[in-house]
Design goal:
The complex is a heterodimer of chains A (278) and B (696).
Chain A (H helix, E strand, L loop, with lengths): L1 H4 L2 H18 L1 H4 L30 H37 L1 H16 L2 H11 L7 H28 L2 H9 L3 H37 L11 H7 L8 H29 L10
Helix pairs in contact in A: 2-4, 2-11, 4-5, 4-7, 4-9, 4-10, 4-11, 5-7, 7-9, 8-9, 9-10, 9-11, 10-11
Chain B lengths: L18 E10 L2 E11 L4 E5 L6 H9 L7 E8 L2 E2 L5 H7 L4 E4 L13 H12 L4 H14 L5 H4 L9 H12 L6 E5 L7 H18 L2 E6 L2 H7 L2 E6 L2 E7 H6 L4 H9 L49 E2 L13 E2 L7 H4 L19 E15 L5 E15 L3 E5 L6 H8 L7 E6 L2 E2 L5 H8 L2 E4 L13 H11 L4 H14 L16 H13 L5 E5 L7 H18 L2 E6 L2 H7 L2 E6 L2 E7 H6 L4 H9 L5 H6 L26 H5 L3 H9 L5 E4 L2 E3 L14
Parallel strand pairs in B: 3-8, 3-9, 6-7, 7-8, 15-20, 15-21, 18-19, 19-20
Antiparallel strand pairs in B: 1-2, 1-4, 4-5, 9-10, 10-12, 11-12, 13-14, 13-16, 16-17, 21-22, 22-24, 23-24
Helix pairs in contact in B: 3-4, 3-6, 4-6, 6-7, 14-15, 14-16, 15-16, 16-17
Classes of the chains: A mainly alpha (278), B alpha/beta (696).
Chain lengths: 278, 696
């Protein structure tokens, strides 16, 4: 932890991310407008009354972004964490045991990877028509589609790590397979894994947009950052505030995830600890 | 053509230097890797540059070739036939490279392009610099391959690098290097990646090539034995500088630099097996830590005085020890280089390891008919099994070391892994103190694993980089059932036992040098209090000056604890020092096993004899008077085992001493290991003829 805090970019990213979270989760309590209540002001550019403006139906954009950020951050984090945990464990098992286990796991992964996510979303949207889908369902679907990507990367890393002499040495000492995976392989694959979490966080926000766009996922009046961006695409020229503010938040969250991921990776690797102070 | 004043070197009157390096400095950012190196190279001579990792020897040779990255800061002067090379554009340098200056790299696997035939690469090398027709260039390419000793050059020229063995690839690289009759050939560790018998062949080929084109050769190596046998003059590099320079005989016999002396005293010699190894304390400095305000060797030097830590000594002419020797051929960078009474005083003695301390008669490890087979796919995609270990048997008693030697691919590492059950053996039995390791399962296996531990070759990959030393050793202690409370104390104890300090426990592996890491690996192996330790090439990845310390440590630990060692190595000189008995492996089998002195003094198998004769001895007088038995070719692939005696394809006895009748026996019958005396077994039909093998 101390090592993480010593990295200035990661520290700044963490502070910004906490501010974004406060804005999204505490903000609605303090802000006068609710995301699902129309105001009298229609298509207003940013002003003191509406810092991020309003849309053509009178929703306050800031209230909507608060709500959207809540949804997007929750979905992104759940997807990233679930997919990474499952993907890392499965990938480590495949890479470490190889042989039959590996072959079986990899075929399952191949099958999942060939699912076109758009088609999956379309089918699910059709099935769930009329009913309300909660954000957890969306997260589950996205995580299901994402874990194989993590598993493949982790498997490749673990395969090369598993031949290192320190793994042989551990086996020679009589460390169990579980012990080797948990104590030696996963920690050493942490670099790969944090990169995966980071990338997934950013892509999950965008994937959620695609799903919502097709009618499966977050539906109006509830909203997400992705939905806000996609619905206001056509307004880029005429009412740019509708597009740029939610877009800004997506970029902010993705950047924070990336820098925090970097910081975690450095903090976990003892080899990176010797930062030279000039 | 040079305007520089001629040096006092007698040879300089004969010819002016081809290559002059003056006050060369190379900096990578803040790292000052080469700090003021000067030397000359003359036509026809072999200049050896010897040094350990970080000494700057490879950076110097790459600087001459103009192969350093662009951001490198190079100062000083390198002139080739009067033309300044420092600051020359890459295009101009390219016209010289390959034509006038050429280079042989360490790794023949990566210095040839795998998707082009050897011939195509050789012809390309010729045609870049000379406007020859393809047919003409090809004829020349064939001739070049013949010079470096590639048989059937006419056919083999159209083969791809993967169809060549390691030694043949390196010969092909040498052929490419000499393709345009260069004036200077730089060979950077040309034989380090090769086996010792192949090393002898390749050095021979390099010598042939050099004579053929009458070039100067710069031979860069860490191996004092190679220098002793092949160089005319030598530069000893340390900490980015030349610390000693002179004729090979002069430097080896009358060294005036404590580092050179220490290095020579620390190298195990096959002809002096019982002489104690004197390790140089510490490790070679990293170039990043050098200040230029002290002698880089001071911290490790037995003769260091106050001046050594405050002033960096210049390379000074040693002066004549007796009137007959010309001045200025010998120089050393030591404040006391002109005080032979100081720098030639006796080196401090090392504590003698009590011989055979914990020697007992109990058999700790008994291996019978060990077989290790792998399933592999051949090039055509057919499955075939490769027999890596083919019926190996031996025993190790308490306090005894069995040295298991052989070239790469002979199966010695596979045997070591099967014996420790890091790999499931295909057949045979392994008993540790009478308990069957091969049949052990579950909890019994875990408890037996504690009894037989392994020390690995690579100190950089054998320790988990994310674990502190305390965690690495603690993991082993936990498995040995040491309660958590007692672990810290045991870790400290183990660290002291292997010559480290207990304060190091909280550090991570990357903070240690190679030698220190290897000591941590040894401490981990000892944590479970084993009976047998399998040492798989434990010192071959270490710097020469550090090896001796680890070997001595192993000998001391063995004497203190009565450990049985299986010492697997390709370096017979190291093995000779620590082993009580020797087993020589060839193509998966033991071809000779017996008491150390019996095997070394009077080898009964022709392979053993050839192996011993190929080891360079770091003494120019001895090395030049020896004649290596050059084995033909390389070891066949285990999947392509010759019928009868597997060694016959390379056997000097088979080739020259047998009549057809007796040859048939070698072709037909596979020789069994049979005793030639009470303490030695040999697998050869005609062991008595081995003595008659001529050194040629």
């Amino acid at each position: 932890m101390r090592r993480f805090l010593r990295n200035p970019t990661s520290l700044i990213a963490l502070v910004v991310f906490v501010l974004v979270l406060l804005f999204a989760f505490v903000g609605p309590q303090l802000w006068i407008y609710r995301y699902d209540v129309y105001t009298d002001d229609i298509s207003q550019p940013p002003s003191l009354a509406h810092p991020f403006g309003t849309d053509s139906t009178g929703y306050d954009t800031m209230a909507q972004i608060m709500r959207g950020t809540q949804r997007s951050v929750l979905i992104a984090l759940v997807v990233a964490i679930a997919a990474t945990v499952v993907g890392s464990i499965v990938g480590a098992i495949a890479g470490y045991f190889r042989g039959l286990a590996d072959a079986a796991i990899m075929r399952v992964i191949d099958v999942i990877l060939v699912f076109p996510s758009i088609a999956v979303a379309a089918v699910l949207a059709y099935l769930s028509m009329g009913t309300e889908t909660s954000w957890t369902t969306i997260a589950a679907v996205l995580a299901f589609l994402a874990w194989p990507i993590v598993a493949r990367v982790v498997r490749a890393t673990v395969m090369s790590l598993a031949t290192s002499e320190y793994v042989l040495a551990a086996r020679g000492l009589g460390v169990s397979h579980l012990g080797i995976i948990v104590r030696h392989l996963i920690p050493n694959a942490m670099g790969t894994i944090t990169v995966a979490v980071t990338v997934l966080t950013a892509t999950a926000i965008l994937s959620e947009t695609a799903l919502s766009y097709l009618g499966f996922g977050v539906q109006a009046p509830d909203t997400s950052l992705g939905l806000l961006v996609s619905t206001s695409q056509s307004a880029v020229m005429t009412r740019p505030w509708l597009f740029y503010f939610p877009g800004l938040f997506i970029v902010l969250i993705a950047l924070c995830a990336s820098f925090i991921g970097d910081g975690v990776r450095h903090a976990l690797d003892p080899r990176q600890s010797t930062r030279r102070s000039a | 053509m040079t305007t520089l004043a001629p040096t006092l070197d007698a040879a300089s009157t004969m010819s002016s230097p081809l290559l002059e390096v003056r006050d060369l400095h190379v900096r990578f950012g803040a790292v000052h890797a080469v700090r003021g190196v000067s030397f000359d190279v003359r036509r026809g001579e072999v200049l050896g540059i010897v040094g350990e990792s970080g000494s700057g020897k490879s950076v110097t040779s790459n600087a001459i070739m103009g192969l350093l990255p662009d951001r490198t800061l190079i100062e000083g002067s390198i002139t080739f036939e009067g033309q300044e090379l420092v600051g020359l554009s890459d295009g101009a340098m390219s016209r010289l490279r390959g034509a006038r200056l050429s280079m042989v790299f360490q790794d023949p696997m990566s210095s040839l392009n795998p998707v082009l035939t050897v011939g195509a690469q050789l012809i390309e090398a010729i045609r870049i610099h000379r406007p020859l027709s393809k047919a003409h260039a090809r004829a020349e390419a064939v001739a070049l391959l013949e010079v470096v000793g590639i048989p059937d050059a006419q056919q083999r020229i159209d083969q791809y690098p993967h169809e060549f063995s390691g030694g043949m690839r390196q010969r092909a690289v040498i052929a490419i290097a000499m393709a345009n009759r260069p004036d200077v050939i730089i060979a950077d560790e040309p034989t380090t990646a090769l086996d010792v018998t192949v090393q002898a062949q390749v050095l021979e080929a390099l010598d042939q090539a050099r004579k053929h084109v009458n070039a100067a050769l710069i031979l860069v190596t860490h191996d004092m034995g190679v220098i002793a046998g092949h160089a005319d003059r030598v530069l000893v590099m340390y900490g980015g500088r030349v610390v000693e320079r002179g004729d090979v005989d002069e430097v080896f016999e009358r060294s005036r630099m404590p580092y050179t002396r220490g290095l020579l005293a620390s190298i195990p010699r096959i002809d002096q097996r019982d002489a104690p190894l004197r390790p140089i304390p510490g490790a070679p400095p990293s170039p990043a830590t050098l200040t230029g305000r002290s002698c880089p060797f001071a911290a490790r030097c037995a003769f260091a005085q106050d001046v050594c830590t405050s002033v960096e000594p210049a390379l000074l002419d040693v002066g004549a020890e007796d009137e007959a020797r010309p001045l200025a051929t010998h120089a050393a960078a030591c404040h006391f280089a002109r005080h032979p009474e100081i720098v030639r005083a006796d080196l401090p003695t090392v504590p003698e390891v009590p011989a055979g301390g914990g020697r007992g008669s109990e058999v700790l490890l008994a291996v019978v008919d060990l077989v290790q087979r792998y399933e592999a796919k051949d090039r055509a995609g057919r499955r075939r099994s490769v027999v890596a270990v083919d019926g190996v048997s031996f025993t190790i008693r308490a306090g005894e070391t069995l040295g298991l030697v052989g070239e790469s691919g002979c199966g010695k590492s596979s045997a070591a892994r099967a014996v420790t059950r890091l790999q499931e053996m295909t057949g045979g039995t392994v008993h540790v103190r009478g308990r069957d390791l091969a049949a052990a399962r579950g909890r019994e296996l875990t408890s037996m694993r504690r009894q037989i531990q392994m020390v690995f070759q690579d100190p950089f990959s054998s320790l988990d980089p994310r674990m502190s030393v305390a965690a690495v050793i603690g993991e082993a202690l936990a498995l040995a059932g040491v309660p958590r409370r007692a672990r810290a104390e045991r870790v400290a104890q183990l660290l002291r036992d292997v010559g480290l300090s207990e304060e190091m426990a909280e550090r991570y592996p990357h903070e240690f040098s190679g030698g220190q890491r290897q000591r941590i690996g040894i401490a981990r192996a000892l944590a479970t209090d084993p009976d047998v330790v399998v040492l798989d090439e434990p010192v071959s990845a270490l710097d020469v000056s550090v090896q001796a310390g680890v070997v001595n440590l192993l000998a001391r630990l063995q004497a203190e604890r009565g450990l049985g060692y299986l010492f697997v190595a390709h370096d017979l000189a190291v093995v000779a020092h620590i082993s009580d008995r020797i087993a020589v492996m060839y193509l998966g089998r033991i071809v000779e096993i017996g008491g150390r002195d019996e095997v070394f003094d009077d080898p009964a198998h022709p392979y053993t004899k050839a192996l011993l004769s190929a080891i360079p001895i770091p003494d120019p007088k001895v090395e030049r008077s020896r004649q290596a038995i050059t084995l033909r070719g390389d070891m066949p692939s285990p999947s392509d085992r010759p019928s009868g005696c597997a060694f016959r394809s390379r056997c000097p006895v088979f080739a020259s001493l047998l009549d057809d009748e007796r040859r048939k026996r070698c072709e037909r019958d596979d020789p069994e290991l049979e005793p030639t005396s009470t303490s030695r077994d040999v697998a050869c039909h005609f062991p008595n003829l081995t003595r008659e093998v001529q050194h040629a």
